[in-house]
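Q: DUF2165 domain-containing protein, please. Structure only.
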Amino acid sequence: MSVSSDHSQGRGNEPAASRTRAPFGTREAAAAVLTATVALYIALVAFGNITDFDTNRQFVRHVLAMDTTFRDEDLMWRAITSRAWQDAAYVAIIVWETAAALVLIAATWLWLRRDSRRARTVSSAGLLMLLLLFGAGFIAIGGEWFAMWQSEKWNGLEAATRVVLLSGVALLTVHTTDRR
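A: Structure for DUF2165 domain-containing protein:
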């Protein structure tokens, strides 16, 4: 890679690294593939939730209502039984999933353009969105606050853990591409 003569003489406003494309090595390829994989997965999840709205709406309703848990009196005050609030939560989940998918698709495009700096930033944003939704939302709030772990039928902890694991590995891989 060549550096412009303006920068080498100290006259450029931008550092040389921002004016040249970083080499696309195996780390960048791994980050691109993982970002694309997560983007595809979450796009299909969001698409499924939109086109088969009722299936996962029932999941969200049962988790929030806590109607398949042990029904411990000390916990049941946490239940949300309003269908309007349950449906609002489900729509918010779909919107968040869709937004994360779009961010990760944009990140994949940036990886393919070999714009590693911006790709890393955008990938991180999308992957953190998923870690918040599936880690904080499903595992912490759904699993613990709404005692989803107690339900034999409406327990999404395993699926949420898969997304957290995949997103976490992708995030770590994305950040190993930083050659600074």
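A: Brief note, in case it's useful. The chain has one domain: 23-175.
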